[in-house]
Predict the structure.
Amino acid sequence: MLHDVERKLFDEATIFRRLDVMAHEITQRYRGLELTVVVVLNGSLIFAADLLRRIELPLKLECIRAASYYGGTASSGLVDFPAGALPDIAGRHVLIVDDILDTGRTLHALCQWLKASGGPLSIDICVLLAKTKARAEEVTATYVGFEVGDEFVVGYGLDFREQYRNLPFIGTLRDEVIAAGERDARQD
Ligand code: XMP
């Protein structure tokens, strides 16, 4: 797995230092409020586990699944949420926790979906990473761990064809690895 990595962008110690700061800001913002954290699986699993344990507040946790990449490195443009999975967020302040803000399609669709459910008092977004690029959909994340360029990143929960999620750091893959994965995906 390590041989496939081209460049490490953020190691575990750097991620944890940033999480301490983000969790402190979130704790200050939601003190005294009814907070529900909506975690977008699978990519946010590790980030959310580490972030939530640093938030010093009572909170409810909801997990939802969203898929838009279907194994490649480019958004399919379609975002799916499983029917019947809408969390009960009426009268709650909602903080969405996602791994990465890229085209913005996933978070835009999720916000619309949650708003349509009726009743949240507020919806804010927290992402581990935000790509510095123009978005297909207008989305603002209130809490951003790190900005990254417009390149495909893996590790610390983020995958390429369901691999690399368990790398303890965030990095990029070698071009040959991505090319081989995309060739395999076309044959599947
Ligand atoms: P959008 O484009 O809707 O992307 O903002 C949202 C979801 O797509 C996945 N994604 C990535 N996954 N490396 C990954 O491993 C990336 O560079 C990347 N860019 C987008 C991710 O699941 C995100 O929630």
